[in-house]
Design goal:
With 857 residues, this protein is mainly beta. The chain is 4% helix and 50% strand. It is globular, with a radius of gyration of 34 Å. Residues 777-842 form the PapC-like C-terminal domain.
Length: 857
């Protein structure tokens, strides 16, 4: 039987009356004194002759009654999810019910049940005393927040990385079909569109039109991503339609694939269209079969790279790891050698300070040098991929040489001593390549990876090109100056080296036309903190080519900071593409919030290399209760193209997103309308939604329509109580919480928050237990017409406590049906209770609280 909390719980209606009763207790009634609190019942007789019930039920404050509750479990200060836990009545009726911790539950929570005889020899559903079975283990329960706290020594827990979520908790979801869509329409008008972003070909359409004064052209775009889920399999298809300013429309199939996860190898199987990994070779599109590791399946602490920390504790010691002054890790270890290999990877590297504090207060400190680069893996970690299929390209070709068959495999392994090794090969028609490399944490000198690849390419005239490419990556943080080299790298390729993309392009070149393949590449990213003066960041990339003196170049330098409420940003951008003119921009942006509103004002001034000076002022912000409406109004002035203005709005509803925009300049205008949303077909019907994303949840709260969700702007339940929650994180705990203020006067929910752990691409069902009932203000009397005793408990036909009797027999009852029976209890004997049957009168207008006068027999 599922039982509800006491009426004194913060999650149950009827708090005013309950608070009135508890207020008569001394302050110690809210403490943890197991001796209980004695109420002076004579206070009830002040001001009149008021009968009272047996108030010993309140002797221990907020009572926990026997039953099964959904609780949030917290183990050693880490939330490990929600569980159904049974609470059993104790021999002493004055005590709260206590949680029944079974060997099965403890095993799920990571306890080494096999090494404790009292757990190993008991049946999985036997209740055990945790403190007696495991020394120094404790358990406590917070009934107000329904949280179960466990403290268990690390030695009694199974070894698992921080952030690990057992595959047993992964939810593959339900069978369903879905459609994600994006539709947009643009109308251009006027006779001067050169200020707009159109291509020269599109501009000629306007220049050569027969319309003498006004031009008008419409463009359309549609993106459709549909598919279905059956068991572990996910089928998806994505295609687009585009009609541009030249009036030509084109459908294009982007990809079609069948996918499922393989938990045993922490990987994904894909059949159809996909992309090869881009961590070693350049990523390419293919059509075929691929098996590859999925880093999202790893715990948070196992993704990316972080060093393995080793040390020795002399007692039960606390180990802290700090970086740049911040505590990033803390745990307790048993005496003897220990290994910490589950640090969370950090986006900025820097030396780690390890502090071992013994139980007697002694401290041992040392530094662990650490810098991270993309090609470093943790010790014992694998990263792999195997692909077989046909090369794909979105560019057409008359000869069809752009689709060679290919096989690609990559493998990487994290080794001891902070080494990582990796390698791979590509075998394709007229192209073969192999790569090998090594990564190393050089401790105080940073981190470095170095790899070399060899490629053999045969052109359509059977001429062979053999070449090599050398690449290194480096990262380092200088803590004293707060300087962070996120990554610095260099790559050099000989004249006959080709990547797979370059080899395919070369097959399609016209005779006599020079082919420009990459020669060298230099890139780096640098971030410099200036403390209260802001942050300076810069990134640069330059790539040169054989048979050409031109270069691709990108340099970006930014400085940002704030003064009181004023935010400022200075940005410089310089880009050059192969055989194209360079583009330089210098921009200053100032922004400030407008009072206590959710709006801000912004001023921007920009100068480019064509001596164009643009000044722009805008107001942007959000509106409505959950920020589901966003807007931006902008006006600008250019010394070359004159003045222009624009306004944009985006609205998120429960069935999709609507975008509207209008821009107007000298001789031209543009109006845009966009819609995006999703459709989910499932066993219980059809549900419309916002854009779905990859992984979603179907939330069901029966009979609770138009109810919102926390941190989900615009998402609300439909008439059936269903809602789609888009964009969940696969293999992670996603918390879905109803906005209980939207439930209305007649809907009750047992648990307003649920945790789900979906697999990639899943449609998981999150069902909230709701019930429809009325709120009643009842005046209850005995057979002789006297009010029922103050403090009497009121139970429904299921034995669930639904209210409590207050002064003069008044009681507030929740979750009541149109008719039913109630039992009122004010003592421990059979005579100290009575039952009553009620039926609500029909009313034309429903009131939030219905009033009834009933006699209890």
């Amino acid at each position: 039987m599922t039982s509800y909390l006491s009426p004194c719980s913060s999650r149950t209606v009827g708090l005013p009356l309950c608070a009135l009763v508890v207020a008569m207790a001394s302050p110690s009634a809210f403490g943890k004194n197991q001796a209980g609190t004695v109420f002076n019942e004579q206070f009830l007789n002040i001001g009149g002759d008021q009968p009272s019930a047996d108030l010993s039920v309140f002797s221990f404050g907020n009572r926990v009654l026997p039953g099964t509750y959904t609780v949030d479990t917290v183990l050693n200060d880490s939330n490990i999810g929600q569980n159904e836990v049974r609470f059993n009545k104790q021999a002493d009726d004055a005590q709260d019910a206590t949680p029944c911790l079974t060997p099965a539950l403890l095993d799920d929570w990571g306890v080494k049940t096999s090494v404790f005889p009292a757990l190993a020899n008991s049946s999985p559903e036997t209740c055990v005393d945790l403190g007696k079975v495991i020394a120094q283990a404790t358990v406590s329960y917070d009934p107000g927040n329904q949280r179960l706290f466990l403290s268990i020594p690390q030695a009694a827990l199974k070894r698992s990385a921080r952030g690990a979520i057992s595959p047993d908790r992964w939810d593959k979801g339900i069978n369903a079909a879905m459609l994600d869509y994006q539709l947009s329409f643009s109308r251009y008008d006027g006779n001067n569109l050169r200020g707009n972003t159109v291509s020269p070909v599109q501009q000629n359409v306007f220049d050569n039109t027969s319309a003498p004064n006004k031009l008008e052209r419409d463009t359309y775009f549609g993106g459709l991503r549909g598919g279905f889920n059956i068991d572990d399999w996910r089928f998806r298809h994505f295609s687009t339609y585009n009609r541009s300013l030249d009036g030509q429309g084109r459908w294009q199939a982007i990809n079609t694939y069948l996918q499922r996860d393989i938990a045993s190898i922490r990987g994904q199987l894909l059949i159809g269209d996909g992309n090869t990994p881009g961590n070693f070779f350049d990523s390419v599109q293919f059509r075929g079969v691929q098996v590859s590791s999925d880093d999202a399946m790893l715990p948070d602490s196992q993704q990316g790279y972080a060093p393995t920390i080793r040390g020795v504790a002399q007692t039960n010691a606390r180990v802290e790891v700090r970086q740049n002054g911040y505590l990033i890790y803390s745990t307790y270890v048993a005496p003897g050698p220990f290994v910490l290999d589950d640090l969370y990877p950090t986006s900025s590297s820097g030396d780690l300070e390890v502090i071992i504090t013994e139980s007697d207060g002694r401290e041992t400190r040392y530094a662990q040098a650490f810098s991270a680069v993309p090609t470093l893996l943790r010790e014992g970690t694998w990263r792999y991929s195997a692909t077989a299929g046909q090369y794909r390209s979105g560019y057409g070709s008359s000869r069809g040489k752009e689709r060679p068959s290919l096989v690609q495999g990559t493998l990487a392994r994290g080794l001891a001593q902070d080494f990582s090794i990796y390698g791979g090969t590509i075998l394709a028609d007229k192209y073969q390549s192999a790569l090998s490399g090594v990564g190393k944490n050089l401790r105080s000198f940073g981190a470095l990876s170095l790899d070399i690849s060899h490629a053999r390419t045969t052109d359509r005239d059977d001429q062979t090109f053999n070449g090599q490419s050398l690449r290194f990556l480096y990262a380092k943080t200088f803590e004293k100056t707060n300087t962070n080299f996120r990554v610095a790298g260099y790559r050099y390729s000989t004249s006959d080296y080709r990547t797979l993309q370059e080899a395919v392009q070369m097959q399609d070149m016209l005779d006599g036309r020079p082919f420009n393949n990459r020669r060298n590449e230099l890139r780096f990213e640098l971030a410099q903190s200036l403390g209260q003066w802001g942050t300076l960041h810069t990134s640069a990339r330059q790539q040169s080519y054989w048979n050409s003196n031109s270069r691709d170049r990108l340099v970006q330098i930014g400085y940002s900071g704030s003064y009181q409420k004023l935010n400022f940003n200075l940005f410089y951008n310089h880009s050059t593409n192969l055989d194209a003119a360079s583009n330089r921009q210098l921009m200053l942006t100032l922004s400030i919030p407008l009072g206590d509103t959710r709006a801000s004002a912004q001023y921007m001034v920009m100068k480019d290399n064509n001596d164009q000076l643009v000044q722009q002022a805008s107001v942007y912000g959000s509106a409505l209760d959950d920020n589901r409406l966003t807007y931006n109004v902008t006006g600008d002035d250019s010394n070359q193209s004159g003045t222009s203005s624009s306004a944009n709005m985006s609205y998120l509803s429960s069935i999709g997103r609507l975008d509207l925009g209008r821009s107007q300049g000298r001789g031209y205008g543009q109006t845009t309308v966009g819609m995006a949303g999703g459709v989910l077909v499932h066993g219980d019907g059809l549900t419309l939604s916002q854009p779905l994303g990859e992984t979603i949840a179907l939330a069901q709260a029966p009979k609770a329509n138009d109810v919102g969700f926390e941190i989900r702007p615009g998402v609300r339940t439909d008439k059936s109580g269903d809602a789609v929650i888009p964009n969940l994180s696969p293999y992670r705990v996603n918390r879905l919480a109803l906005l209980t203020g939207d439930l209305g006067d007649e809907v009750e929910v047992k648990n307003a928050a649920l945790d789900v752990v979906p697999t990639r691409g899943a449609v998981v069902k999150a069902k909230f237990a709701t019930s429809v009932g009325y709120r009643l203000m009842m005046t209850l009397t005995n057979k002789d017409g006297s009010p029922l005793p103050f403090g009497s408990k009121i139970e429904n036909e299921l034995g669930q406590e639904v209210g409590i009797v207050g002064p003069e027999g008044q009681a507030f009852v929740t979750g009541a049906g149109e008719k039913g029976k109630l039992r009122v209890v004010w003592g421990r004997n059979e005579k100290d209770q009575c039952t009553l049957a009620y039926q609500l009168p029909k009313e034309e207008s429903s009131k939030p609280i219905r009033e009834l006068n009933e006699q209890c027999g």
